[in-house]
Design a protein that fits this description.
This protein has 347 residues and is of the alpha/beta class. It has 14 helices and 13 strands. It has helices at residues 10-17, 38-46, 59-70, 82-93, 109-116, 134-142, 163-170, 183-186, 191-194, 224-233, 241-252, 254-276, 300-309, 333-346; strands spanning 25-26, 76-79, 99-102, 120-123, 145-151, 175-179, 200-205, 218-221, 281-283, 290-295, 312-313, 315-319, 322-329. It has a 7-stranded mixed β-sheet with strand order 2-8-7-6-5-3-4, with helices on both faces. A 4-stranded antiparallel β-sheet has the order 9-10-13-12, covered by helices on one side. The longest helix has 23 residues, at 254-276. The protein is globular, with a radius of gyration of 20 Å. The two termini are 36 Å apart. The relative contact order is 0.17. The model has no long low-confidence stretch (mean pLDDT 97). Bound molecules: pyridoxal-5'-phosphate.
Length: 347
């Protein structure tokens, strides 16, 4: 099977390029460049009981999430990143040979985890504006698929899936997983539908908005029965103490984090305008904290390499559905300025 193509951390990028860690402009992982809440750092530095195992049932964190998400804690489960929940959901539903629908181009963990669980990936391409092909997915469902993944906003394309499309798929009875890892940047959610549909799961993450990607916290909103089953099959201490503390403290400091989210949303607009102003770039509108760009004249790979040499990292795609594309995470204003100056030199 194809391994997951992961991104490198700051220290490795620094070693490869000779650029000091502080000088690296990391726009390849959709992380929050403003970092975590100061409350997280303070709580982590004073917590006295790291020698004790974490709460396997994540009680305090799930209670804290109730208020933020707006559903009772018996519908919530936390994972070591939402990546872990993708894997657990597949373990719960998939037997070897079962089909899982993947609306490509999309997030690479869906096919990766489907294959590690012995499932068969059925790719249904999105249309030219990256909207989900609802009738194509329905056709694939009719051919006995077990589960469909829909990232909304979608990574790497940045567009959301409208509620009417999700409802059409829910009507078929298939389990629909709506992955809202970038919810805080789009403001669109299917969470209220979970209470009405026992085949809908919504996944969220603390990695992008709360600035704690390195601590690995994601959660899911589930029909009660599915939450109970997942609680039974998950590894006992899947979310470590530091991760649980960091997530709880983030939820106590929403005012601060909202400011960084708003700064990123404002910068998204500015970055889009700057990229649209470059001759070789065609950026696609985004409701996430990144922008996908199609690059003219086969220049994407060269630009990606030359940016890397300058210590500026973006994600490069060259697949049949994403030819010559770059995905650029929204950084701070100074990151946009450095990126655009480098692009003007390179192109
Ligand atoms: C659509 C989508 N879902 C899930 C994730 C993973 O999130 P986490 O860090 O919570 O595992 C990502 C990360 O890039 C993503 O783009």
């Amino acid at each position: 099977m194809k391994p997951y193509s992961y991104i490198a951390p700051l220290e490795v990028l620094s070693q490869h390029t000779g650029v000091a860690v502080e000088g690296i402009i990391k726009l390849d992982g959709n992380e929050n460049p403003y970092g975590c809440s100061p409350k997280v750092k303070e709580a982590l530095s004073t917590y006295p009981y790291y020698h004790v195992y974490p709460d396997s049932e994540q009680r305090e964190l799930r209670k804290a999430l109730e208020g933020y998400v707006g559903v009772p804690d018996n519908r919530l489960l936390v994972g070591s990143g939402s990546d872990e929940l993708i894997d657990l959901i597949l373990r719960l539903f998939i037997e070897p040979g079962d089909k899982v629908i993947n609306c490509v181009p999309t997030f690479g963990m869906y096919p990766f985890s489907t294959e590690t669980c012995g499932g068969k990936v059925v790719n249904v391409p999105r249309d030219e504006s990256f909207a989900v092909d609802v009738s194509g997915v329905k056709k694939a469902i009719a051919e006995s698929a077990k589960l469909v993944f829909l990232a909304s906003p979608n990574n790497p394309t940045g567009n959301t899936t409208p509620q009417r499309d999700v409802l059409k798929l829910l009507e078929t009875g298939i389990v629909v997983v709506v992955d809202e890892a970038y919810y805080e940047f789009s403001g669109e959610t299917m969470v209220p539908l979970v209470v009405e549909h026992d085949n809908l799961i919504v996944l969220r993450s603390f990695s992008k908005w709360a600035g704690i990607a390195g601590l690995r916290v994601g959660y899911g909103v589930f029909p009660e029965k599915i939450a109970q089953h997942l609680m039974r099959i998950k590894p006992p201490y899947n979310v470590n103490i530091a991760a649980q503390i960091a997530a709880i403290e983030s939820l106590k400091d929403l005012g601060y984090l909202q400011e960084t989210i708003q700064a990123i949303i404002a910068e998204r607009q500015r970055l889009f305008a700057k990229l649209a102003g470059l001759d070789s770039f065609k950026p696609f509108p985004s409701k996430a904290n990144f922008i996908l760009c199609s690059v003219l004249n086969n220049q994407a790979e060269g630009i990606h390499q030359q940016l890397g040499r300058r210590g500026i990292f973006v994600r490069y795609f060259d697949t049949p559905l994403l030819k010559d594309c770059l995905r650029i995470s929204v950084g701070k204003p100074e990151h946009t300025d450095a990126l655009v100056a480098a692009l003007k030199e390179i192109c």
